[in-house]
Write a structure and sequence with these properties.
5-stranded antiparallel β-sheet; Immunoglobulin-like; alpha+beta; Papain-like_cys_pep_sf; C8orf32 fold; single chain; Transglutaminase domain-containing protein; Transglutaminase-like
Length: 319
């Protein structure tokens, strides 16, 4: 068993004196891959949570049955833990990653937009078209709703349209891929579908918008299992910087529509940013739709089946 522990608390000081808008919790990410009975080499990439103005990693512990190493993908700077099992070895691959996280309520991030960010966050993704004819009827309604033609008014009208016209539900198949075409035709889905549509509409109006994904960490209980991921968006305005929105949570909680436009509660952990991610040479041919669950290659070829995972959290201190 390989164990790697990083103690970072001293870099940031103690948890005392945190504001009411701050939480500290432990988050656990468990993976078990015991189905690879193959002579081929196995490579597994597990996302690592990022650090920014609203999220700091106070302590990280990584335990892996096979040695691994940390790395960073080039396009968006997302971190990962890479486990390599050589060929002709059939040992199970068991990894347990945990972090102590300081999470703050987030608002606008007043940062100028770089040329690289403008190009990245105005461009289409495989399932997120920009300037496509399927968006034209919706944009006509958005234009009729907005109070003026400014980017700020347009972004707000897009948010309101998506919240009012897309239903949060998980019925049948087809939802959950972050597919703008699905959201336009079916008008329902989960957070990925809501935010794919928002990003397509925003980028079509020349408003840079970026996809962010992690896990919900509810503040209504002190510990427990977490069933799956959650995602949200930040878009850029010249006079405000990066503005957070969460259209799917606003649709689920109408009374909190205003909260989820411009404010990001401390009820989540952010792991990665962006769509169509490339981690390896093989993934260039089949980029990752998004990166929240382990990415696996078998003999250097992407392996699309899911490995066993579980997620949980425990509150350390409340705000």
């Amino acid at each position: 068993m390989v164990r790697v522990v990083f103690f970072l608390l001293g870099l940031f000081g103690s948890a005392s004196g945190l504001t009411a808008e701050t939480r500290v919790f432990e988050f656990n990410y468990r993976m078990l891959a015991n189905e690879f009975l193959s002579t081929e080499a196995v490579d597994i990439y597990i996302p690592l949570p990022l650090e920014d103005g609203s999220q700091r990693i106070l302590e990280q512990t990584i335990r892996s049955s096979i040695p691994g190493e940390s790395g960073v993908e080039a396009r968006y700077g997302n971190g990962y833990f890479h486990i390599h099992r050589p060929a002709n070895i059939n040992n199970p691959i068991d990894a347990d990653l945990s972090w102590t996280v300081e999470r703050r309520v987030a608002g606008d991030v007043d940062e100028p937009l770089t040329a690289q960010e403008r190009e990245q966050f105005l461009a289409p993704n495989q399932l997120v078209p920009v300037g496509h004819e399927v968006l034209e009827p919706i944009l006509a309604e958005v234009h009729a709703m907005r109070v003026d033609e400014s980017p700020a008014a347009t972004a707000r009208a897009i948010y309101d349209w998506v919240v009012d016209n897309v239903e949060y539900k998980k019925v049948g198949t087809g939802w959950g891929n972050g597919d703008t075409f699905w959201a336009c035709s079916e008008r329902y889905g989960n957070c990925t579908d809501f935010h794919a549509l928002f990003i397509s509409l925003a980028r079509s109006e020349g408003i840079p918008a970026r996809f962010e994904i992690g896990f919900p960490v509810p503040d209504s209980r002190e510990e427990g299992e977490i069933g799956g991921y959650h995602c949200w968006v930040r878009f850029h305005l010249p006079d405000r910087g990066w503005v957070p929105i969460d259209a799917s949570e606003a649709a689920k909680n109408p009374a909190q529509r205003e909260l989820f436009y411009g404010t990001q509660p401390a009820d989540r952990i952010h792991f990665s940013t962006g769509r169509d991610l490339v981690l390896t040479e093989a993934s260039k041919r089949q980029p990752l739709n998004y990166f929240i669950y382990p990415y696996v290659e078998l003999g250097g070829i992407p392996w699309r089946a899911k490995v066993e995972t579980s997620f949980s959290f425990r509150e350390v201190t409340g705000g």
